[in-house]
Design brief:
It contains 13 helices and 16 strands. By secondary structure, it is α/β, with parallel strands linked by helices. Helix 1 runs antiparallel to helix 13, helix 7 packs across helix 13 and helix 8 packs parallel to helix 11. The structure holds zinc ion. Zinc ion (ZN) binds next to helix 7.
Length: 464
């Protein structure tokens, strides 16, 4: 009996040993293909330089969809589907401005002799403009919502300046972003509730430059939809300093408004499974980006990495057992309608999805894979760590997902994963004019695709 158990366990070891070896050879092939013949960087150049910023509803977004369809076909998709969805169509409408105005003599609210200083601002996405007349009011500084509540009787008729800073002690910058995000998201309506005329939000960043960072805000219908801008960090510090000395008025001019909803599309490239075609693996990023940036890291990187997995599998003649869907989602930034549509249709058609993965954290050096699933699935995920770690993702962590795959994951209750690249520089450029192709490193971008492809290969081969 003892001998039998010994034999059995050595067989198991021999078997796993063999398959680990075959897998490490395959993953090396995938890596070599992407690092030697990859199109990921060229594809990003085309998307960002030929098309540029591509907010939902814009002509650039339509161009990006056509580009995505073509590149998916060229990369070898069995078929490419454009899945239509209704998307909001917000436009900036003009050049956002903020400055310290000049006053006539005798005005009591003196501006400390600082006249016509310009502040670098950008209107928050989905915000309503002030028009050319602008809003000129005294600024009320609050560092957080607690302070807003304490000062609520002073808010009426003023411009509220939320100077909430990124917490520098968090190693994962996404944590700081998550905390500060509420000021951009609900700050305008919370200030409007007490009669504020406009809002300035400290940019959600810890960058050393002065570029303001936009991003979606969410008005509550019960309060006035007041103009709202993000301000660059140096100007935020300057404004904070001046407000310590005394009262200050600022003029804000923004022009945002909504056009009628438009039709956007998720671009879906598919490789049909050879053994289990009805078992679907989804991997993707979002194709839309803010208008004032090229959307290189956010999320051009995730899109071209997604396409690169498809290209590499085809180039290597790898025929997946399961159906793999490579998805460029529509409208993540200011509506999430693409992700919602994808989830709704999968549920309505009773599709069987086994995993959804997203890359939407920048094209930086891959560090970790995040995973959410049952304990059993997590154990299986962990067993692949030694195969993938040599390519960069040396940490396998609990908790993985993404905004776009969220509706699918919740509707079908399936496991989800994310590529977690190094996060130290992401919020330097996120939603700012500095999110351009030049700020993406070719090797780092490619390595992200390598790690994603290796993981998708293992999920396809072994299931979850
Ligand atoms: Zn994004």
């Amino acid at each position: 009996m003892k001998k039998f158990i010994f034999l059995l366990s050595s067989l198991v070891i021999a078997h796993t040993g063999f398959s680990q070896n075959a897998d490490s050879i395959m993953i090396k092939k995938i890596s070599d293909e992407i690092l030697s013949n990859g199109k990921v960087y060229d594809n990003l150049r085309n998307l960002t330089k030929k098309i540029g910023g591509r907010l939902a509803g814009s002509p650039q977004m339509q161009m990006a969809e056509q580009w995505g369809e073509q590149v998916m076909k060229e990369s070898g998709a069995d078929r490419v589907i454009l899945q239509a969805c209704k998307v909001p169509h917000w436009v900036r409408g003009g050049k956002d401005e903020a400055f310290i105005p000049t006053f006539k003599q005798g005005n009591k609210s003196i501006n400390l002799g600082i006249f016509n200083k310009k502040l670098d601002v950008i209107a928050l996405g989905n915000s309503m403009g002030s028009g050319a007349v602008g809003v000129t009011e005294e600024v009320l500084l609050v560092n957080n919502f607690d302070e807003l509540e304490k000062k609520k009787d002073e808010v009426k008729g003023k411009i509220v300046f939320y100077n909430y800073k990124f917490n520098p002690t968090y190693i994962q910058t996404f944590r700081a972003y998550g905390e500060a995000g509420q000021y951009r998201g609900s700050g305008p309506s919370r200030a409007a509730k007490y009669g504020a005329k406009a809002v300035i939000v400290r940019s959600l960043s810890s960058s050393t430059d002065n570029n303001p960072h936009t991003g979606a805000t969410r008005y509550l219908d019960s309060f006035a939809k007041i103009p709202a801008v993000a301000i660059g960090l140096r100007d935020a510090d300057w404004l904070n300093n001046e407000l310590q000395k005394g009262k200050l008025k600022v003029t804000i001019k923004t022009y945002g408004y909504f056009l009628d909803s438009a039709i956007g599309h998720n671009v879906i490239g598919e490789l049909v499974g050879s053994e289990f075609p009805d078992q679907i693996i989804t991997v993707g990023g979002h194709l839309d980006s803010w208008d004032a940036a090229e959307g290189a890291h956010d999320d051009g990187a995730g899109c071209v990495q997604t396409i690169e997995i498809l290209r590499a599998f085809k180039a290597l003649g790898y025929k997946p057992k399961r159906t793999i869907r490579f998805v460029l989602f529509a409208n993540e930034e200011n509506g999430l309608r693409g992700g919602e549509k994808y989830g709704e249709e999968a549920a309505a058609k009773k599709e069987k999805h086994i995993l959804a993965m997203e890359s939407d954290a920048g094209g930086f050096t891959p560090r970790a894979l995040g995973f959410t699933g049952t304990d059993e699935q997590f154990q299986k995920f962990m067993s692949w760590k030694t195969l993938i770690a040599p390519y960069g993702c040396s940490e396998f962590v609990k908790g993985g997902g993404g905004a776009d795959i969220g509706p699918l994951v919740r509707a079908l209750k399936i496991p989800s994963a994310s590529l977690n690249p190094d996060s130290q520089r992401y919020f330097d450029v996120h939603h700012a004019r500095s999110d351009v192709f030049e700020n993406v490193n070719k090797r780092e971008l490619e390595l992200g695709a390598v790690n994603m492809a290796a993981f998708i290969y293992l999920v396809d081969k072994y299931g979850l």
